[in-house]
Amino acid sequence: MTILNAERSPFREQQEQLEDTYLAPQATRSRSSRGRDVPEDACVLRTCFQRDRDRILHSKAFRRLKHKTQVFMAPVGDHYRTRLTHTLEVAQIARTIARALRLNEDLTEAIALGHDLGHAPFGHAGEAALDAMFEAGFAHNEQSVRVVEVLEPLNLTREVRDGILHHTGPVAPLTLEGQVVKIADRVAYLNHDLDDACRAGILQPMDLPSDVRLVFGDTRGERIERMVLDLIATSGADYEAIRMSEGVHETFLELRRFMFLNVYHGSRAKIEERKVQGIIAGIYRHVMDNPVVLERALNREVVESERERATVDYIAGMTDRYAIAFYEKIYVPRSWSLTDELPS
Ligand code: MG
Questions:
Q1: Which domains does the chain have, with CATH numbers?
Q2: What is the pLDDT of residues 53-80, one digit of tens each?
Q3: Distance from the alpha carbon of residue 7 to the mean position of ligand 1, in angstroms
Q4: Which has the least CB within 10 A, 152, 226, 327, 329?
Q5: How far is the CA of 325 from the centre of ligand 1 (A)?
Q6: Percent helix, strand, coil in the chain (nearest 5)?
Q7: How far is the CA of 116 from the centre of ligand 1 (A)?
Q8: pTM for the full model?
């Protein structure tokens, strides 16, 4: 069957040729990818970035995102964002921008789906708690790369790993597609966290500063559309970087400051953070003191010198509900039902 020869596959080559004719000159082409650490045969059907996207989607770490907090802890309400729905919103916004700018939509989607794979349970409170416990420090973007390189090795292309690593922090991603995800992440979380804060009764849309309302409008749809349109118009003028126009960016930063002041740092959601520190610290101590727990969870021997790192990996991989169940099991006395003690 000649079509199964990956070296000369008409299907993949067709995709690569489409990229050549369709993409902007500044876009990243899958054919010129810097490649994988471990060389492997190309896929018969998909470009290297399409393949990376699928590997991320099929990973266990991706599925665990559904039970990890975005901002509101282990929400009981069905309509609050989780880390998974946040990831999907980022991917959607990023793909819209990439397609309009004729950048590589597959690379953009792969980076977006993978960007938060290493996020700790309980959102940024969990991240801060792990960072305080672990001497080498903990940051979710570095952990995301550790997930795809070490913990659940996917052998992804350099461009995807770079975009995941630099989706936050001062260093710009290598590719414009990585830059799209970095800004789409902010557009997504500011808008959906605002929506969730209104749902929780922390804010009303009318509480937003007047110039934020003037520039971005009063509904979530209007806000996202105006941010995305400005990003596309500004970045598409010269393709030097993915950015907003100066005035719109100023207002965007004002919205960000408002959200930090009123939601991320100054609300009920924040009060829960002390409890998160207690849970993470409790689990950390227990696992460090009982290496057999770790060995049973990882199904392998853990030598003394790697115990701390493996403990951090184990806790970072937990979902909110797994961490709470774990904590309950080791620290909360088990309750026996009264009926157990009644004579039959
Ligand atoms: Mg994110």
A1: 49-274 (1.10.3210.10)
A2: 999 999 999 999 999 988 877 667 888 8
A3: 36
A4: 329
A5: 25
A6: 65, 0, 30
A7: 5
A8: 0.94
